[in-house]
Design brief:
Number of helices of chain B: 17
Low-confidence stretches of chain A: none
Structural class of chain B: alpha+beta
Mean pLDDT of chain B: 86
Number of strands of chain A: 2
Helix content of chain B: 25-40%
Radius of gyration of chain B: 27 Å
Number of strands of chain B: 20
Radius of gyration of chain A: 24 Å
Strand content of chain A: under 5%
Low-confidence stretches of chain B: 1-11, 13-57
Strand order of the largest sheet of chain A: 1-2
Largest sheet of chain B: 8 strands, mixed
Helix content of chain A: over 70%
Oligomer: heterodimer
Distance between the termini of chain B: 71 Å
Shape of chain A: globular
Largest sheet of chain A: 2 strands, antiparallel
Chain lengths: ~325, ~550
């Protein structure tokens, strides 16, 4: 596995550069948006002089580069600023519990997606040409192409309002040794279902395509020619090789989940990082927006790095750093 | 070799998945039943949770469960929105408050004397008021500290001046010319003297707003409205309820303050606000909460006498007015006839009854019902399209209104049914096309303050039940909050007279006279007054829908 360490190091060195670029864009986009949080918070009763005085005191009248500079300085000292939505509460105290909420149900979604989608994709490929195949493709396409914005109200209406099987939304926790766990509540089923359906559909479609490609390979034909049983061929030769590219999807899956959780949490009233992202943009909650963007960016970089490393680990033919020998 | 590794990795992943998913589903199966409180073993699958036979959810004896958004802040000095104030009035308290009949009542002050000239208030504090942690009683210097903190520019409160600037020396303190508010004097532990700049009968009512509440100076430290506010997550207040837990975005738990000093003491042991969740109405129907308001989408269903929820529905008129305001300093809106024409071209009954489904009542004047001095016989500008057209023609015709813009706050989504209807009525009745510009709320307010608009739509909600809070604050020519820049010397004189008029009857008459003139001058088109409504479970007793924010929970009890 030589070559892995320098590669990882190189990627790690790039991470701050990427985050820096991301932070500059997010910061200036926020500042150039019309009005700011002082105005939004002040409401119709406060006088102009009061608003101006507070804005001045909070440094909002300084040039943007200067504001950015002091943000970075504070950030490096571990001061991530204060929330506006929860006025004056340090950003990390607000965000970390919310990240934990989002991580919990998304972890379940990722696990379920892979466990369900992979066998379905393989079976669909093996049944190519039968009535099962077009049906499966149709169902995949349907679920993969309907956006969560549409599935959320439909499932909510059906499962919560009409059938009354599930709570309509929200989040409920139980405490275990001081850790608040939301996995044990019925409330997690609806969000998991909503995100897993399109995930499974997309991944199964991809898995089916991969399997079909592998099925056409010479070594599969050779294996069959050797007289191996169908199941052995599939498990040992087909599935294993078809799975390889699937690992890369994990990174993209993560990005899709981060985006999806914004809608999902807002519509279902889940107190995770997605609904908070939505609220903080509405409230011009600068420090919260920055923290969320940097956190999301960091998570994305981290996940993709992990995928690359895993990939290199699974298949040494893929030489990291781009050179092919 | 590589295939061996792949197998290892995949096996590991598979084992992890099985463990996690197995555990997950096992816990779901075992623990899922607790969510609706039933044991789960015998309940028939698929039973609708809304059905009457469902066992009631687990709850603490005497617990009231409500649905609420998070407050923006629990710092009384900083709160500028009704949502925050609703929590603050239960957890904190001040010198005076309002009871449910909207009488101003003594709170931490047991009584007060007012000097003959009406400017010096001497408050006598109760001696048995303690902070929630029981460590200390509230004294006059706590009030001086708390009010000066709200006014202190360091605190960065947007509302400190709004509610406390009648106090002598407040402006000098805000501008940094003085290091204390001279009008707030601590006579002794039990006596606080507040001097105001002129006799103002509404001053006491302003003190019922959180800005004048007392905070524990040991815990607030040097926190401001925008930083260092960790203490607000577990504040040490004086109100009827103690904040036991605030899990951000998830729930707030209040517990009765056993040291509370007013009668009645809280009867509820606990109040839980569920902060996360989708639809409050669904949660009400599934017995997750005991009380909720109803929005425009559900109102028809609830009003239907055949709906089971109808029996649990109540509504009262709330103290607010929604209106169109004109820039009365700029042509063509500096011409009264143009404003009157636009007003008389609007069918307010249609807006209120048909479009908003009677969730609101059509407004005739500025003051909402429920405000003392409200005049039910006020002669407003009637819906009269013919007269409106005449007025507009006299003033110069419809082309005066070409390119005129209605400024509204919004985020680029649909304009909403009211604005749509207004545009249509103006077009049909007057033949004018008004354009609409949507702006983010902050920017919208800035443009209003700077007079950078033709016309706008906005609402005003009572801070305290007094006509001064509407007429003087919104329509006196010198008021900061007079966005329309409306100026009528005759109205100003009436309003100024009312400020210092000691006899209530005379005072209200002055306000009625001023209102009658204003309505004819039409700097505003009053559109409608809102209503507050609620669905209340039958076992909740003593709840009265308040028309504005008052400490309400201590009157409520649960019986079953």
């Amino acid at each position: 596995m030589q070559g892995l360490a320098p590669y990882v190091l190189q990627r790690l060195l790039w991470a701050p550069v990427i985050l820096f670029a991301v932070s500059v864009v997010a910061f200036s986009l926020g500042r150039f948006a019309p009005s700011d949080y002082v105005e939004l918070q002040a409401g119709p009763r406060a006088s102009n002089e009061t608003i101006e005085r507070i804005r001045e005191a909070r440094g909002l009248n300084d040039p943007v580069y200067q504001q950015y500079g002091s943000y970075v300085l504070n950030f490096l000292q571990g001061d991530f600023g204060d929330s506006i939505i929860y006025r004056g509460v340090p950003v990390e105290d607000v965000i970390l519990p919310r990240v934990w909420v989002t991580v919990q149900y998304n972890a379940v979604v990722i696990l379920l997606t892979f466990v369900i989608a992979i066998p379905i994709g393989i079976v669909a490929a093996l049944r190519r040409g039968t009535w099962l195949d077009p049906m499966a493709i149709g169902v995949f396409l349907l679920f993969a192409s309907v956006p969560v914005l549409v599935t959320i109200p439909i499932l909510q209406w059906l499962l919560a309002v009409q059938l009354g099987w599930l709570p309509s939304g929200g989040w409920e926790v139980r405490e275990f040794y001081g850790v608040e766990i939301g996995l044990l509540s019925k409330r997690i089923i609806l969000p998991v279902l909503i995100l897993t359906l399109p995930g499974v559909a997309g991944l199964a479609r991809y898995m089916r395509a991969q399997t079909l490609e592998v099925l056409d390979q010479d070594y599969v034909r050779t294996a069959r020619a050797k007289g191996l049983q169908g199941f052995t061929v599939v498990s040992r030769h087909v599935a294993r090789n078809a799975l390889l590219p699937i690992v890369t999807i994990l990174g993209f899956e993560l990005a899709a989940l981060i985006a999806g959780s914004i809608f999902l949490e807002t519509l279902l009233g889940i107190p995770g990082i997605g609904s908070y992202a939505f609220e903080s943009v509405k409230s011009r909650d600068y420090d919260s927006i920055m923290a969320i963007v940097l956190l999301g960016g960091g998570a994305f970089i981290g996940a993709n790095l992990l995928v690359d490393i895993t990939y290199g680990f699974i298949d040494p033919r893929i030489r990291l750093g781009g050179e092919v020998r | 070799m590589e295939s061996r590794k792949l197998v290892l990795v995949l096996t590991g992943v598979a084992v992890a998945l099985i463990v996690v998913i197995g555990g997950f589903s096992a816990v779901l199966l075992l623990g899922g039943g607790d969510d609706d409180g039933s044991s789960g073993s015998d309940s028939s699958p698929g039973a609708s949770p809304a059905a009457g036979s469902t066992p009631l959810p687990d709850r603490v004896e005497g617990e009231l469960r409500l649905f609420g958004p998070d407050p923006i802040t629990l710092d009384p000095a900083c709160a500028s929105d009704a949502g925050s104030a609703e929590y603050i009035v239960e957890v904190f308290s001040g010198l005076v408050s309002f009871d449910r009949e909207l009488n101003l009542i003594p709170d931490i002050a047991s009584g007060w004397d007012i000097s003959d000239d009406g400017t010096v208030y001497t408050f006598h504090l109760r001696t048995n008021v303690q902070f929630h942690d029981g460590s200390r009683r509230v004294t006059a210097s706590d009030f001086k500290f708390s009010m000066e903190r709200a006014l202190n520019p360091r605190t960065q409160s947007t509302v400190g001046e709004v509610y406390l600037d009648d106090i002598v020396g407040a402006r000098a303190f805000v501008s940094g010319e003085a290091n204390e508010v001279t009008g707030i004097r601590v006579i002794d532990d039990n006596t606080l003297e507040i001097t105001i700049d002129a006799p103002k009968s509404y001053f006491l009512a302003k003190l019922s707003y959180p800005t004048g509440f007392v905070v524990d100076q040991r815990e607030v430290g040097d926190s401001t409205c925008f930083s260092g506010a960790n203490w607000t997550l577990r504040p040490n207040g004086t109100g009827p309820f103690r904040l036991a837990e605030w899990s951000l975005g998830q729930r707030i738990e209040l517990e009765a303050n056993s040291r509370y000093y007013l009668d009645p003491m809280p009867s509820l042991a606990k109040v839980t606000y569920i902060l996360a969740g989708g639809s409050a109405l669904i949660m009400y129907e599934t017995d997750e909460i005991d009380l909720t308001g109803v929005g425009v989408n559900d109102i028809e269903r609830i009003r239907d006498l055949n709906d089971p929820l109808n029996a649990e529905f109540v509504e009262v008129e709330s103290m607010d007015t929604f209106y169109i305001g004109f820039n009365t300093q700029e042509p063509p809106f500096n011409d009264r006839r143009v404003r009157q024409a636009l007003a008389m071209a609007i069918d307010k009954e249609f807006l209120a009854d048909t479009i908003l489904k009677e969730l609101v009542v059509a407004a005739n004047g500025i003051l909402p019902p429920g405000i003392p001095a409200y005049n039910p016989n006020l002669e407003g500008l009637p819906y009269d399209p013919d007269r409106a057209l005449e007025l507009l023609d006299d003033a110069g015709g419809p082309e005066l209104l070409n390119d005129k813009v209605l400024l509204t706050s919004g985020r680029g989504a649909s304009l909403g049914p009211i604005v749509d209807a207004l545009l249509l009525m103006w077009e049909q009745n007057l033949g004018v096309t008004i354009t609409v510009q949507q702006e983010d709320f902050g920017l919208f307010l800035r443009d209003l303050d700077e007079g950078d608009f033709d016309m706008f739509d906005l609402g005003w909600i009572a801070d305290y039940p007094d006509p001064q809070n509407f007429l003087d604050i919104k329509l006196h020519s010198q008021s900061d909050n007079n966005e329309t820049a409306y100026s009528n010397p005759q109205v100003d004189e009436l309003l100024e007279q009312a400020r210092t008029e000691p006899v209530e009857e005379t005072r209200f008459r002055l306000y009625r006279e001023a209102e009658a003139i204003i309505v004819q001058d039409a700097p505003w088109i009053p559109l409608y007054h809102g209503k507050a409504n609620a669905l209340i479970k039958p076992y909740v007793e003593g709840y009265v829908v308040p028309p504005f924010v008052i400490p309400n929970l201590r009157y409520i009890s649960i019986s079953r």
